[in-house]
Amino acid sequence: LAGALLFTGRPQDGAAVAREAAAALPPAQDDLRRSLEAFALGAALFGAGEYAEFPRLHEDVDLDGGVGTKMLTGLTALARAYSGEHVEHPVRLALDALAGGDVVRADPSGIPTMAAILVLVFADRDEAIDVLDQALAEVHRSGSLFGIAGVRLFRGHALLKRGELAEARDELETATNDLRMWGYGVGARIYATAFLGATLVAIGDLGAARKLLPDADEPQIVADGARFWLNSKLELLVAEGRHDDAIRVAELLRSQYGHVLLPAAGHWRSLAAEALDRLGRRDEARAHAEEELELARRWNAPGTVGRALRVLGTVERDDGLERLGESVDVLGGSPARLELARSLAALGSAERRARATPRCA
C-alpha cells in the first residue's frame, strides 16, 4: 500500500503508511521494521517531508540484520554521496548494501536498491551495470511491469553516464512507455523525462529534448526527480544558447538544491560557468567552474573530475591548456567515454589555437 501510494503520486501518504506499519510491528520483526523505515526515509526523495533533510542521513547503519539493514545502508550511501564526501566511503556502503543480491531479490526496483546503484553510477563503477542487469533479470522473472519500468529507467541513466547514447535512448524510451502503462505518478515519471531529455541533448536532438523539457513544465515540487529535471533543462538551455535563462535555472538549483554537493548528480555549476562565459562574464564563470572542480576533487571519480577540469580549462582560455590535458589524462580508461570525447575535442581546439604540439593523433 505504501509503495502504491508513493509511486502513483501520494508520497506523503505512502511514507505515513510505512511509518505506521513499522510502529505496529512486534520486536521480533526488527528487520522488516528497518525495511519500512528505509522506505519512509527514501520517500523524502519524492517530496515526502523535507527533501533537504535527506543528505543529512549521515550515520552509518551498524546493526545486525538482513535485508532491512542493507536497505538502510543503501540509502545512507546515497545520502553521504549527496553530502559531498569522498567517493570511497559511499561506494563501500553501496557495495555492502548490494552484497549477496538480497536487496535486489527483495525489491529490485525499490528506492534503497536504486539509491545504492546511483552511488555506483556517480562513481563510474562498472558494478552499476552488473547490478542493474541482475535487477532486470529479477523483474523479468516476476513479470512485474512496475519493476521492469523502474529498473530500465535507472539502467538508461547509467548508460547515459557511460556515454552509450543510442542504448540509453532506447532504454529510456521503453521505460517511459512502461511507466505510463503501469500508472506511475508524476513524481516518478519526472525521472524518465529528465534522463531522456538529457540523453537527447547529448545526442544533439534539441527539438525532441525541447518537447520533453518545455518552459511551461518547470516542476513546482522540491524533490530529487525535479532536481534531475532542472539539471537536464539547464543542459538544454546551454545547448540552445539561451544563456540568461540558463543562469536563472542554475540559480534556482543553487537556492533549492544547494545542499546536494555532489557534482556527478547535477553539473549545474559548470553549466552556469559555460553560460556566464558566453555572456562575457568570465570572472563569474571561473568562480562557478572552480567551485565545481573543488567539489569534484573531493568526490574524486574520474568522470566528475574530468568534466570539471574541462570546463575550467575552457573558461581559462590559453591559461587552461594544462587543465585540459589533465582532464584527458583523468578520463582515459574510465567508463565516462562521452566526457573523454568532449575533453579530447576541447584539448584539440585549444592546442590548435595555441599552435601547440598535439598530444594525440
Compact summary:
The chain has helices at residues 2-7, 11-24, 30-42, 67-82, 88-98, 102-106, 111-122, 127-142, 145-161, 165-182, 186-203, 206-212, 224-240, 243-257, 268-278, 282-299, 302-315, 321-331, 337-354. It has 361 residues and is mainly alpha-helical.
Which short descriptors sum up this protein?
mainly alpha, 0% strand, 361 residues, single chain, 71% helix
How would the blueprint of this fold be written?
Layout: H1 2-7, H2 11-24, H3 30-42, H4 67-82, H5 88-98, H6 102-106, H7 111-122, H8 127-142, H9 145-161, H10 165-182, H11 186-203, H12 206-212, H13 224-240, H14 243-257, H15 268-278, H16 282-299, H17 302-315, H18 321-331, H19 337-354
Report on this structure.
- With 361 residues, the chain is mainly α.
- The protein is 71% helix and 0% strand.
- The chain is globular and about 70 Å long.
Order of helices and strands: HHHHHHHHHHHHHHHHHHH
**Span between termini:** 59 Å
SS content category: mainly alpha
Percent strand: under 5%
Query: Considering DSSP H and I runs of 4 or more, what fraction of the residues is helical?
Result: over 70%
Total count of helical runs of at least 4 residues: 19
For the report, how would you describe the main beta sheet? none
What general form does the structure show? globular
Count the beta strands: 0
Uncertain residue segments? none
Which value, in Å, is the CA radius of gyration?
20 Å
- The overall pLDDT average reads 93
